[in-house]
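[Meeting: bench + compute handoff]

Bench side (C.D.) handed over the final construct sequence. Compute side (W.E.) agreed to return the predicted structure before the next meeting so the bench team could plan truncations. Sequence as handed over:
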Amino acid sequence: MGTTTLEAAPEPKYWHLKTVLSEALDSDFAVGEVLPNERELAARFGVARATLRQALEQLELEGRLQRRRGVGTTVAPPRVGIEVGNPDLAWPGEAGKDGWQPLDCVPVEPSAAVAALLGVGPGEPVHIVRRTRLTQGQAVAAELLYVPAASVPGLAAIEEVSGSTRARAVLRELQRLVLQGKDRSVELGSARADDAKELDRLPGAPVLVVTTRYFSAGAVAAVSVATYRADTCRLTFTESGDVEISAADERRAG
Protein backbone atom coordinates (compact mmCIF):
# COMPACT_ATOMS: atom_id res chain seq x y z
CA MET A 1 0.00 0.00 0.00
CA GLY A 2 1.78 3.15 -1.20
CA THR A 3 1.47 6.76 -0.22
CA THR A 4 -1.86 8.25 -1.30
CA THR A 5 -3.11 11.84 -1.21
CA LEU A 6 -6.85 12.30 -0.97
CA GLU A 7 -8.47 14.53 -3.56
CA ALA A 8 -11.23 16.95 -2.68
CA ALA A 9 -14.47 15.00 -2.31
CA PRO A 10 -18.08 16.06 -1.67
CA GLU A 11 -18.43 13.65 1.25
CA PRO A 12 -16.60 14.16 4.55
CA LYS A 13 -12.88 13.45 4.31
CA TYR A 14 -13.03 10.59 6.79
CA TRP A 15 -15.78 8.93 4.72
CA HIS A 16 -13.74 9.17 1.55
CA LEU A 17 -10.75 7.80 3.47
CA LYS A 18 -12.89 4.92 4.70
CA THR A 19 -13.65 3.99 1.08
CA VAL A 20 -9.99 4.12 0.12
CA LEU A 21 -9.00 2.06 3.16
CA SER A 22 -11.72 -0.49 2.44
CA GLU A 23 -10.35 -1.01 -1.06
CA ALA A 24 -6.85 -1.39 0.38
CA LEU A 25 -8.07 -4.01 2.84
CA ASP A 26 -9.40 -6.05 -0.10
CA SER A 27 -6.24 -5.81 -2.16
CA ASP A 28 -3.29 -5.42 0.21
CA PHE A 29 -4.16 -7.23 3.45
CA ALA A 30 -5.13 -10.74 4.55
CA VAL A 31 -7.67 -11.64 7.24
CA GLY A 32 -6.02 -11.32 10.64
CA GLU A 33 -3.17 -9.12 9.40
CA VAL A 34 -2.21 -6.23 11.66
CA LEU A 35 -2.50 -2.74 10.15
CA PRO A 36 0.37 -0.22 10.41
CA ASN A 37 0.14 2.18 13.33
CA GLU A 38 -1.94 5.35 13.13
CA ARG A 39 1.03 7.64 12.57
CA GLU A 40 2.18 5.65 9.55
CA LEU A 41 -1.31 5.35 8.06
CA ALA A 42 -2.00 9.08 8.53
CA ALA A 43 1.26 9.92 6.76
CA ARG A 44 0.54 7.57 3.86
CA PHE A 45 -2.86 9.11 3.21
CA GLY A 46 -1.96 12.70 4.03
CA VAL A 47 -4.65 13.15 6.67
CA ALA A 48 -4.80 14.14 10.31
CA ARG A 49 -4.84 11.34 12.83
CA ALA A 50 -8.29 12.45 14.00
CA THR A 51 -9.62 11.93 10.45
CA LEU A 52 -7.93 8.54 10.29
CA ARG A 53 -9.46 7.46 13.60
CA GLN A 54 -12.93 8.36 12.34
CA ALA A 55 -12.41 6.22 9.25
CA LEU A 56 -11.04 3.30 11.27
CA GLU A 57 -13.94 3.51 13.73
CA GLN A 58 -16.41 3.37 10.84
CA LEU A 59 -14.66 0.34 9.35
CA GLU A 60 -14.75 -1.37 12.73
CA LEU A 61 -18.46 -0.60 13.00
CA GLU A 62 -18.99 -2.17 9.57
CA GLY A 63 -17.12 -5.30 10.62
CA ARG A 64 -14.07 -4.77 8.39
CA LEU A 65 -11.62 -4.22 11.26
CA GLN A 66 -11.14 -5.50 14.79
CA ARG A 67 -9.28 -3.93 17.68
CA ARG A 68 -7.66 -6.62 19.81
CA ARG A 69 -6.05 -6.37 23.22
CA GLY A 70 -2.28 -6.48 22.99
CA VAL A 71 -2.38 -6.92 19.20
CA GLY A 72 -3.70 -3.75 17.59
CA THR A 73 -6.08 -3.25 14.66
CA THR A 74 -6.47 -6.30 12.45
CA VAL A 75 -8.45 -7.19 9.33
CA ALA A 76 -11.66 -8.90 10.41
CA PRO A 77 -12.91 -12.21 9.03
CA PRO A 78 -16.35 -12.33 7.37
CA ARG A 79 -19.23 -11.96 9.80
CA VAL A 80 -20.70 -15.12 11.29
CA GLY A 81 -24.44 -15.57 10.81
CA ILE A 82 -26.10 -15.82 14.23
CA GLU A 83 -29.71 -16.92 14.52
CA VAL A 84 -31.67 -15.06 17.16
CA GLY A 85 -34.94 -16.65 18.19
CA ASN A 86 -36.64 -19.67 16.71
CA PRO A 87 -40.01 -20.55 15.15
CA ASP A 88 -41.43 -21.98 18.38
CA LEU A 89 -41.60 -20.51 21.87
CA ALA A 90 -38.60 -21.49 23.96
CA TRP A 91 -37.26 -20.42 27.31
CA PRO A 92 -33.59 -19.43 27.53
CA GLY A 93 -31.42 -22.33 28.60
CA GLU A 94 -33.41 -25.16 27.04
CA ALA A 95 -31.15 -28.10 26.22
CA GLY A 96 -29.12 -27.77 23.03
CA LYS A 97 -30.24 -24.23 22.21
CA ASP A 98 -27.85 -21.90 20.35
CA GLY A 99 -24.54 -22.63 22.09
CA TRP A 100 -25.25 -20.60 25.25
CA GLN A 101 -23.10 -21.61 28.24
CA PRO A 102 -24.18 -20.68 31.81
CA LEU A 103 -21.37 -19.16 33.86
CA ASP A 104 -22.78 -18.07 37.20
CA CYS A 105 -25.78 -16.65 39.04
CA VAL A 106 -26.11 -14.15 41.86
CA PRO A 107 -29.18 -12.83 43.73
CA VAL A 108 -29.35 -9.04 43.86
CA GLU A 109 -31.69 -6.16 44.51
CA PRO A 110 -32.43 -4.82 41.00
CA SER A 111 -31.57 -1.34 39.83
CA ALA A 112 -34.46 0.96 38.98
CA ALA A 113 -33.99 0.25 35.25
CA VAL A 114 -34.07 -3.53 35.72
CA ALA A 115 -37.05 -3.31 38.08
CA ALA A 116 -38.95 -1.29 35.46
CA LEU A 117 -38.20 -3.87 32.74
CA LEU A 118 -39.37 -6.71 34.97
CA GLY A 119 -42.31 -4.87 36.45
CA VAL A 120 -41.22 -5.61 40.02
CA GLY A 121 -41.11 -3.31 43.01
CA PRO A 122 -37.93 -1.83 44.47
CA GLY A 123 -36.12 -4.23 46.75
CA GLU A 124 -37.72 -7.37 45.33
CA PRO A 125 -34.97 -9.99 44.85
CA VAL A 126 -33.85 -10.87 41.33
CA HIS A 127 -31.49 -13.58 40.13
CA ILE A 128 -28.92 -12.52 37.51
CA VAL A 129 -27.79 -15.44 35.37
CA ARG A 130 -24.66 -14.72 33.34
CA ARG A 131 -24.17 -16.69 30.13
CA THR A 132 -21.86 -16.58 27.14
CA ARG A 133 -22.58 -17.72 23.60
CA LEU A 134 -19.95 -19.61 21.63
CA THR A 135 -19.86 -20.04 17.85
CA GLN A 136 -17.06 -22.04 16.26
CA GLY A 137 -15.24 -21.90 19.59
CA GLN A 138 -15.39 -18.10 19.71
CA ALA A 139 -17.29 -16.01 22.26
CA VAL A 140 -19.70 -13.90 20.21
CA ALA A 141 -22.17 -12.74 22.87
CA ALA A 142 -22.50 -12.16 26.60
CA GLU A 143 -25.87 -12.22 28.31
CA LEU A 144 -27.34 -11.06 31.57
CA LEU A 145 -30.63 -12.85 32.25
CA TYR A 146 -32.74 -11.20 34.97
CA VAL A 147 -35.18 -13.57 36.69
CA PRO A 148 -37.45 -12.37 39.53
CA ALA A 149 -37.43 -14.66 42.55
CA ALA A 150 -41.20 -14.97 42.14
CA SER A 151 -40.66 -16.70 38.76
CA VAL A 152 -38.59 -19.50 40.32
CA PRO A 153 -40.09 -20.21 43.78
CA GLY A 154 -38.73 -23.78 43.71
CA LEU A 155 -35.17 -22.45 43.84
CA ALA A 156 -35.48 -21.95 47.62
CA ALA A 157 -34.91 -25.68 48.12
CA ILE A 158 -31.47 -25.51 46.46
CA GLU A 159 -30.13 -22.22 47.80
CA GLU A 160 -26.77 -23.76 48.71
CA VAL A 161 -25.59 -24.17 45.11
CA SER A 162 -23.50 -21.50 43.39
CA GLY A 163 -21.77 -20.62 40.13
CA SER A 164 -22.79 -22.40 36.93
CA THR A 165 -24.71 -25.02 38.94
CA ARG A 166 -26.92 -22.33 40.40
CA ALA A 167 -27.35 -20.76 36.96
CA ARG A 168 -28.56 -24.07 35.54
CA ALA A 169 -30.93 -24.49 38.48
CA VAL A 170 -32.51 -21.07 37.83
CA LEU A 171 -32.92 -21.88 34.13
CA ARG A 172 -34.43 -25.27 34.94
CA GLU A 173 -36.92 -23.76 37.37
CA LEU A 174 -37.83 -21.03 34.87
CA GLN A 175 -38.75 -23.67 32.30
CA ARG A 176 -41.44 -25.02 34.63
CA LEU A 177 -43.55 -21.98 33.74
CA VAL A 178 -45.79 -21.83 30.69
CA LEU A 179 -44.22 -19.43 28.20
CA GLN A 180 -46.98 -17.28 26.71
CA GLY A 181 -44.91 -15.03 24.47
CA LYS A 182 -41.91 -12.75 24.17
CA ASP A 183 -40.87 -9.48 22.59
CA ARG A 184 -37.47 -8.35 21.41
CA SER A 185 -35.64 -5.13 20.56
CA VAL A 186 -32.20 -4.50 19.05
CA GLU A 187 -30.02 -1.42 19.35
CA LEU A 188 -26.45 -0.47 18.52
CA GLY A 189 -24.21 0.22 21.49
CA SER A 190 -20.66 0.29 22.82
CA ALA A 191 -19.14 -2.51 24.85
CA ARG A 192 -18.93 -1.85 28.57
CA ALA A 193 -15.78 -2.93 30.40
CA ASP A 194 -17.20 -6.24 31.68
CA ASP A 195 -18.66 -7.22 28.29
CA ALA A 196 -15.49 -6.20 26.47
CA LYS A 197 -13.37 -8.43 28.70
CA GLU A 198 -15.67 -11.41 28.24
CA LEU A 199 -15.78 -10.97 24.45
CA ASP A 200 -12.05 -10.18 24.09
CA ARG A 201 -12.74 -6.70 22.74
CA LEU A 202 -11.69 -3.25 23.85
CA PRO A 203 -14.13 -1.12 25.89
CA GLY A 204 -16.19 1.00 23.53
CA ALA A 205 -16.10 -1.55 20.69
CA PRO A 206 -19.36 -1.66 18.67
CA VAL A 207 -21.93 -4.16 19.90
CA LEU A 208 -25.52 -5.10 19.17
CA VAL A 209 -27.69 -5.23 22.29
CA VAL A 210 -30.66 -7.60 22.02
CA THR A 211 -33.21 -7.22 24.81
CA THR A 212 -35.86 -9.96 25.14
CA ARG A 213 -38.77 -10.06 27.57
CA TYR A 214 -40.38 -13.42 28.35
CA PHE A 215 -44.02 -13.50 29.48
CA SER A 216 -45.88 -16.03 31.61
CA ALA A 217 -49.19 -15.79 33.47
CA GLY A 218 -49.70 -12.29 32.10
CA ALA A 219 -46.49 -10.90 33.58
CA VAL A 220 -42.81 -10.55 32.69
CA ALA A 221 -41.14 -13.75 33.89
CA ALA A 222 -37.59 -12.87 32.79
CA VAL A 223 -35.59 -10.35 30.79
CA SER A 224 -32.51 -11.16 28.72
CA VAL A 225 -29.99 -8.46 27.76
CA ALA A 226 -27.55 -10.06 25.29
CA THR A 227 -24.56 -8.15 23.95
CA TYR A 228 -23.33 -9.39 20.54
CA ARG A 229 -20.05 -8.46 18.88
CA ALA A 230 -21.04 -6.17 16.03
CA ASP A 231 -17.72 -6.74 14.28
CA THR A 232 -18.24 -10.47 13.76
CA CYS A 233 -22.00 -11.09 14.01
CA ARG A 234 -24.83 -10.77 11.53
CA LEU A 235 -28.10 -11.37 13.36
CA THR A 236 -30.89 -13.31 11.65
CA PHE A 237 -34.42 -13.26 13.05
CA THR A 238 -36.51 -16.27 12.08
CA GLU A 239 -39.68 -15.42 13.99
CA SER A 240 -42.42 -13.66 12.05
CA GLY A 241 -43.41 -10.19 13.16
CA ASP A 242 -43.12 -6.52 12.36
CA VAL A 243 -39.97 -4.50 12.96
CA GLU A 244 -40.62 -1.54 15.23
CA ILE A 245 -38.32 1.49 15.00
CA SER A 246 -38.36 3.72 18.08
CA ALA A 247 -36.73 7.09 18.61
CA ALA A 248 -36.96 6.74 22.38
CA ASP A 249 -33.75 7.14 24.32
CA GLU A 250 -33.61 3.67 25.88
CA ARG A 251 -30.42 2.54 27.58
CA ARG A 252 -29.18 -0.90 28.47
CA ALA A 253 -30.41 -2.00 31.86
CA GLY A 254 -27.68 -2.49 34.39
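W.E. noted at the follow-up: The CA atoms of residues 142 and 195 lie 6 Å apart. C.D. will use this when planning the next construct.
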